[in-house]
Amino acid sequence: MKHIRYRNFKESTRHLFRIYAMIPFSILIVLFLAFTIVNGRMNLTQKTTEAAQSISQTISDVYRQYEEEIQRMAASPTVINYVSSHLGSEQVYSEFYDFNNRQKVKSIFHIVNTNGVFLASSAPPDVLYSNFAFGNLIHRIDQRPGDTLSEMNSFRYSHDRDTSYTFGQAIVKDNETIGYIIYQLYEADMQKVIFKQNNEIAMITDEHNTIIATTSNVTKGGLNKFSPKLDNKGRVLLNEGKYYMYAKRIPGTPIQVVTLNSYKSEQYTYFTVSFFVLAAGLLLWVLIEFLANKMSARNSESIDKLIHALEQLREGNFNGYVDIQTNDEFQILGNEYNVMLDRLKELIEKNKELSELRTIIEVKQLQSQFHPHFIFNVLETLRYAIKIDANQAQEIVLILSRLLRYSIGPDRSVQLKNDMSYVRDYLKLQQIRFNDRLEYRVNVAEETLDVYVPKLLLQPIIENAIKYGYENQSEVLIEINIYTSTGKLILEVRDNGQGMSAQRLQEVNHILQSQTNTTQHIGLYNVHRRLVLLYGEESGIHIDSAEGTGTCVALTIPYEWSGYHV
Questions:
Q1: Where are the alpha helices (DSSP H) in 101-163?
Q2: Positions in the chain short of pLDDT 50
Q3: How far apart are the first and last CA of the chain?
Q4: How confident is the model over 19-44, as pLDDT tens digits?
Q5: Where does this protein have coiled-coil stretches (predicted)?
Q6: Inter-axis angle of helices 77-85 and 89-100, to 10 degrees?
Q7: What pLDDT was estimated at residue 301?
Q8: Separation of alpha carbons 46 and 235, rounded Å
Q9: For the chain, N or C: smaller number of CB within 10 Å?
Q10: What's the confidence (pLDDT) of residue 357?
């Protein structure tokens, strides 16, 4: 006989623990690195784009404000009068400083006549008298007297105050140019506007890529142009560094905003994450070794299987067989457990069959008690109808024949739409009986019409609602609502009767919860017991009532069960 060699249980458990611990950790590392790379690139792109969007909005506002202001000042009667008569300089200066003090980007203000003489200026114009560039600026304004000139140019004033952008407009009186108004924006203020805390480099350029303002001089090329070099991946090369660039043109202006952020921050993040993953991996390996030795002494796959099988059995799952192929005592335990489970299933099947037989007998006994109440009420209605209207009596007989044919049928469960046809016929008879003092409404959800329910389920509930609804009042409203909620089929019967006192409601609920009923009130009890026997303790009747507010009787059936015959 061949000798079977049993494996070392402790070593096997330790080895499996190492493998199963490292697999998810390795997957997590890969996912974490991938997420870090994608997230780093997205953050770099996002902060560069957001900086450009924010700066663009600010520069656009500055541009619009200066464009509107210079047009207003050029057409202002105060300015025209001052250029013509040299009177009213105080008001001209007042309007300029009032505007200028409100701006994020301050400016220098000039009014020049057609002979090049400075009539007004907010800065010493001495350096501009012989400035060839300023003379060309005046000439360009004069070429288009009806338009606003806006362009990049640089002028240096005292105290190292440089301007980098100019707005100019001709002052016209009686279709004749009498002077020029000029705003020159400070470069330092432009730099403050484009500086963003979360952005490395920002600049604004004109349509010729000439730099108007920048937060870093490394962007300036020949003739103050921004002409970046790109590598084969489209990254901008500046000062031996690689940058991500985003450019946004400001609509309606010759200005564009350019923002750049270095890839160094992204690379630093990768380095930091890699170092962290390496350190965490070493620490985790030491921890896994410690836990493997600790856990292998008391855990095993076989024990886990047995525990899991027992948990399934406790939850009612009788198909949780154990498959243990360890060639040790746990395999014997597993085989014995499977044999025990088969025997237990056989015993449960026998008990289930006996229980179903007892349930069918009891349900039939309870169901048979519905019919005397129903027939008595219908015949009472028919008796009154025969005396009043023969045609109506004929209608009642036809309806009654349908109801009797339906009620004596052999089926114990029917589709809800068929039972609701019976309910509507029954309510029609009752409405004839009470001469329109009975009103009813039926609301049935479309998805519930094809489900199966116990036959004649609502008839005794409706009968009770009519019977007790007329106590101390002459008119009754019956409302039937059928819908689904959280896996349950809900059938509600509401009336607007006098309702029940708290004590009476407690007594009725006590009767419903009793295993036997010795009182004369069997209608609700029979329905409740019928539902409990068919669907379990979670099903049955719930009554909500208070004096003066009517009564609501709600029947609950598991919706997933109601699709089958019961």
A1: 132-143
A2: 1, 354, 357, 361, 365-366, 368-370
A3: 58
A4: 767 777 678 777 777 777 777 778 88
A5: 337-364
A6: 140
A7: 64
A8: 16
A9: N
A10: 42
Would you list the DSSP string of 404-438?
Answer: HHHHTSS-SEEEHHHHHHHHHHHHHHHHHHTTT-E
d(CA 225, CA 212): 9
Cβ-Cβ contacts under 8 Å for 434 (sequence gap 6 or more): 470, 476
> What is the per-residue pLDDT for 32?
72
The C-alpha atoms of residue 66 and residue 167 are separated, in whole angstroms, by 7
Angle between helices 523-535 and 329-367 (to 10 degrees): 150
Q: Quick one: pLDDT at residue 482?
A: 93
The overall longest dimension of the chain from CA atoms, in Å, is: 130
| Single-letter amino acid, residue 523 | G
Q: What is the pLDDT of residue 47?
A: 86
pTM tops 0.85: no
Q: How confident is the model over 230-249, as pLDDT tens digits?
A: 888 888 888 788 888 899 99
Identify which of 194, 258, 250, 246 has the alpha carbon closest to the alpha carbon of residue 64.
250
Question: Coil, strand, or helix at residue 177?
Answer: strand
Amino acid at 304: D
Alpha carbon 312 to chain centroid, angstroms? 35
Cα distances (angstroms) measured from residue 215 to each of 239, 253, 348 = 14, 21, 83
Residue owning tokens 């009923």: 517
Return the pLDDT at 397: 82
DSSP labels, 205-239: E-TT-BEEEES-GGG--GGGB---EE-TTS-EEET
Per-residue model confidence (pLDDT) at position 515? 66
Q: Which two tokens stand for residue 310?
A: 């027992």
